[in-house]
Write a structure and sequence with these properties.
The protein is of the alpha/beta class. The chain has two domains: about 140 residues, Rossmann fold (3-Layer(aba) Sandwich), CATH 3.40.50.1260; about 190 residues, Phosphoglycerate kinase, N-terminal domain (Rossmann fold). The protein contains 15 helices and 16 strands. The strands form four sheets. It has a six-stranded parallel β-sheet, sandwiched between helices. Strands 5-4-1-6-7 form a five-stranded parallel β-sheet, with helices on both faces. Strand 8, helix 8 and strand 9 form a beta-alpha-beta unit. Helix 11 runs parallel beside helix 12. The two termini are about 20 Å apart. The chain binds adenosine-5'-diphosphate and magnesium ion. The site of magnesium ion (MG) has 4 residues, from helix 13.
């Protein structure tokens, strides 16, 4: 696949020390792991290596420590869990305890690969970052992508390069500026774009509608105008639910009165979006349709999630909050692929490549 070495390309791994960059950035609650999905997702690669006699050393970041040790971001709870799931596997301390990780410092890389023979990247969620542990080791060590990374890349490049049509992208979430690049890129590949979440309000402003006090990004209005004028099919909500100026739950059309705040797509929009998903053959979904963390504003996201589960289309969900919403509704097993990387999945769809993949492609080959 796209010239990136895979585990088999590492040759005989017996007796070799293999550094595996994993994404163990698990959700933590009061010092406890609240979901070990990301640890379990790395097991196929870890087991592949240990079954063949390799010694595995894992390394990951956790949270956002600012380049120095912070006890609350210690890998200790992950190490404990890993010892149960994969006995005998080593785990380094949080990579971001050192400024050299995000700074992609060569001395830090040298330290990281001291005594290491081979490198495997299985951290899809971090593969869009040119950090030391992602792009450093493949400069000198024979390297490969792990099974999780391989699967993610296969699914997302498949979407980008040969989707079954109609191909529909459903986008939501809070910030449009985060996602404009991918919106533009997707417009060139998809047959229709469906927009909910707070994202829709900037499009409403571009259409000359009013959004009250809803979350919007006025500096992106011109971009939204351009996208709307592109001639591509963009579906926006026809109704919105939220709170009026007195804080009372209210339903609106697409012109929100002064003081109103929109927090979810309305029932009419949810039904329309659901129909579009049911009629598609490929659907990519990123970003909740509303503030689903609040039960009053979860209905739009729930309806879209249910349509993702029910449609015959090939369904892919990217994004941490979208995946959390699916799990909250108990539908995470009902879609074809839940990506472990939010930013990485968007960037791969947009650009067709990631810094971590380019680094592996350039790595020295075995033998
Ligand atoms: P993902 O992690 O799936 O990529 P984002 O991080 O872009 O998604 O956005 C998720 C957040 O967007 C959620 O916390 C949700 O509450 C928020 N959100 C969605 N719609 C609205 C809205 N209308 N107003 C405010 N916040 C919203
Ligand atoms: Mg998010």
């Amino acid at each position: 696949m796209t010239n990136i070495p895979v585990l088999d390309d590492l040759g005989d791994v017996r007796g070799r020390r293999v550094l595996v960059r994993t994404d163990f950035n698990v959700p933590m609650n009061d010092g406890e792991i609240s979901d070990d999905f990301r640890i379990r997702a790395a097991l196929p690669t870890i087991n592949w290596l240990t079954e063949r006699g390799a010694t595995v050393v894992c390394a990951s970041h956790l949270g956002r420590p600012k380049g120095r040790p912070e006890p609350k971001y210690s890998m200790a709870p992950v190490r404990e869990r890993l010892a149960v799931l994969a006995p005998g596997v080593e785990l380094m301390e949080n990579l971001r305890f050192h400024p050299g990780e995000e700074g992609n410092d060569s001395a830090f890389v040298a330290n990281l690969i001291d005594g290491i023979d081979l490198y495997v990247n299985d951290a899809f969620g971090a593969a869009h970052r040119a950090h030391a542990s992602i792009v450093g080791p493949p400069k000198t060590l024979p390297s490969a992508m792990g099974l999780l990374l391989q699967k993610e890349v296969g699914v997302l490049l498949g979407l980008r390069n040969q989707p079954k049509r109609p191909f529909v992208a459903v986008l939501g979430g809070s910030k449009i500026s985060d996602k404009l690049g991918v919106v533009e890129a997707l417009l060139n590949t998809v047959d229709a774009l469906v927009i909910g979440g707070a994202m829709c309000f900037t499009f409403f402003l571009a259409q000359g509608k009013t959004v009250g006090l809803s979350l919007s990004e006025p500096d992106q209005i011109e971009t939204c105008k351009r996208l709307l004028a592109s001639g591509k099919t963009i579906h926006l909500p026809e109704d919105i639910v939220g709170l009026n100026a007195e804080g009372v739950f209210s339903t609106y059309g697409t012109r929100l009165p002064e003081g109103a705040k929109g927090f979810d797509i309305g029932p009419g929009s949810a039904a329309a979006f659901s129909d579009i998903i049911m009629d598609a053959r490929t659907v990519f979904w990123n970003g909740p349709m509303g503030m689903f963390e609040d039960d009053r504003f979860a209905a739009g996201t729930r309806t879209v999630a249910q349509a993702m589960a029910d449609t015959k289309a090939f369904t892919v969900v990217g994004g941490g909050d979208s995946a959390a919403a699916l799990a909250q509704f108990g539908l995470d097993d009902e879609v074809d692929h839940v990506s472990t990387g939010g930013g990485a999945s968007l960037e791969l769809l947009e650009l067709g490549d990631l810094p971590g993949l380019a680094a592996l492609r350039g790595a020295p080959r075995v033998g």
